[in-house]
């Protein structure tokens, strides 16, 4: 039941990793947190709806107190370490060396189907702990029909950041992801992603080793090809939500994209500042607000790994100077899937797109509309999202994919 049998075809040499933050860093964090001053009450921060002006004073006051006095990082580390994790060196084409962290469940079956799960912002590999636990309950290492890999994207938490002397984009993330999967001996893999992970899956599908993709986020402008298509009542509500997000809740993205240096210094100066900036997203982008400790896990790991300044580079690509709203890979014809892809629709996503729109962006062979769930699908609905992925795999097999690395897909590679 160890799930740690590295595939025999691996050329990389991953080393087992266990998270253990140095005690002096833990002590320093709690000291800073206690010294952080809560803002005074204002008209804006005493409103009860966080969708109106952001997190409110009551939440911040209670969360700070809980973080200081009840939250136990060492106990939370035990939970984080409950799944096998690794670090591996990956050398990019220009010689730059990345130190990439990933969680994984390796099957004893050498011909198991590889699936790589890609997270987004303000998430991390922690988003997928629930899915990994669902899989462990469902399959033993001997029976597991998949190799499951969950990388920390470059610059996020336990992975090293991009080079300091050049730009870095989702296309670059895709290249490193493909190097990771091939280096682990896992060619012929499926990509899965939401948020930044979904943006990465688009260029990832251009690599021969990536055979198919499943998405739970597909933010795009209305395509001309869908101008006369029907949009259901529930999808109309989703589009209203997307418009509201664009008008009232997307200022953070412009700040990330246009002044990443400034906001990076601001949020890495105080745990309380980081809490306010990120907790707002976990509260307003979800269907049901997650448990506070789960939110704090993500924020605390960001703090210890100094992630925030290192991971928001992607926003310059889509929200920086001379870019336009909605200019994402999902609406870019260069990245429209020729390979099969699937789409899971969650109604409380920040921008749930109608199925007719999504169909214009590639070879859609599978989809499902859920009646609950939000932006962090893997985090909120691990059982449901995993069921979707397995259902998508079955649809692939029905189309000629038998799960063997050498056979590939009936559809032509894109």
TrEMBL record:
SUPFAM superfamilies: alpha/beta-Hydrolases
Domain called Epoxide hydrolase N-terminal: residue spans: 15-128
Keyword field contains Zinc: no
Keywords for this protein: Hydrolase
One GO term of the biological process aspect: epoxide metabolic process
Annotated active site: 195, 315, 375
GO MF, one example: epoxide hydrolase activity
Pfam families attached to this UniProt entry: EHN (PF06441)
Family label: Belongs to the peptidase S33 family.
Record PANTHER family: EPOXIDE HYDROLASE 1-RELATED, HYDROLASE, PUTATIVE (AFU_ORTHOLOGUE AFUA_3G08960)-RELATED
Protein name stated in the entry: Epoxide hydrolase
Organism in which the protein naturally occurs: Paraphaeosphaeria sporulosa
């Amino acid at each position: 039941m160890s799930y740690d049998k590295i595939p025999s075809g691996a050329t990389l040499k991953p080393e087992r990793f266990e998270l253990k933050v140095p005690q002096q860093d833990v002590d320093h964090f709690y000291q800073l947190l206690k010294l952080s001053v809560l803002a005074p009450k204002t008209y804006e921060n005493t409103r009860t709806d966080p969708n109106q002006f952001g997190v409110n004073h009551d939440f911040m006051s209670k969360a700070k107190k809980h973080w200081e006095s009840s939250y136990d990082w060492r106990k939370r580390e035990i939970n984080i370490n409950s799944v096998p994790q690794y670090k591996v060196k990956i050398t990019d084409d220009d010689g730059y060396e990345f130190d990439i962290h990933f969680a994984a469940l390796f099957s004893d079956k050498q011909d198991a189907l590889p699936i790589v799960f890609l997270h987004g912002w303000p998430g991390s590999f922690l988003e997928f702990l629930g899915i990994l636990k669902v899989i462990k309950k469902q399959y033993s290492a001997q029976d597991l029909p998949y190799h499951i890999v969950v990388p920390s994207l470059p610059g996020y938490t336990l992975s090293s950041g991009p080079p300091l002397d050049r730009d870095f984009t989702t296309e670059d993330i895709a290249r490193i992801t493909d190097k990771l999967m091939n280096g682990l001996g896992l060619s012929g893999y499926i990509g899965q992603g939401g948020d930044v992970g979904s943006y990465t899956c688009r260029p990832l599908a251009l690599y021969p080793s990536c055979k198919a993709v499943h998405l739970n986020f597909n933010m795009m402008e209305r395509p001309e090809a869908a101008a006369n298509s029907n949009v259901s009542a529930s999808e109309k509500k989703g589009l209203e939500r997307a418009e509201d997000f664009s008008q009232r809740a997307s200022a953070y993205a412009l700040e990330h994209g246009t002044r990443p240096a400034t906001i990076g210094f601001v949020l890495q100066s105080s745990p309380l500042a980081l809490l306010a900036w990120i907790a707002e997203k976990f509260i307003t982008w979800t269907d049901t607000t997650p448990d506070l400790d789960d939110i704090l896990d993500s924020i605390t790991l960001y703090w210890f790994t100094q992630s925030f300044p290192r991971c928001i580079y992607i926003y310059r690509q889509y929200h920086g100077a001379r870019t336009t709203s909605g200019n994402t890979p999902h609406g870019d014809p260069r990245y429209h899937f020729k390979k099969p892809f699937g789409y899971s629709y969650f109604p409380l996503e920040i921008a749930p797109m109608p199925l007719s729109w999504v169909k214009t962006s590639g070879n859609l062979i599978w989809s499902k509309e859920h009646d609950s769930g939000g932006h962090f699908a893997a985090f909120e609905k691990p059982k449901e999202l995993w069921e979707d992925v397995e259902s998508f795999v079955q649809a692939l097999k029905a189309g000629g994919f038998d799960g063997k690395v050498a056979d590939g897909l009936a559809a032509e590679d894109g």
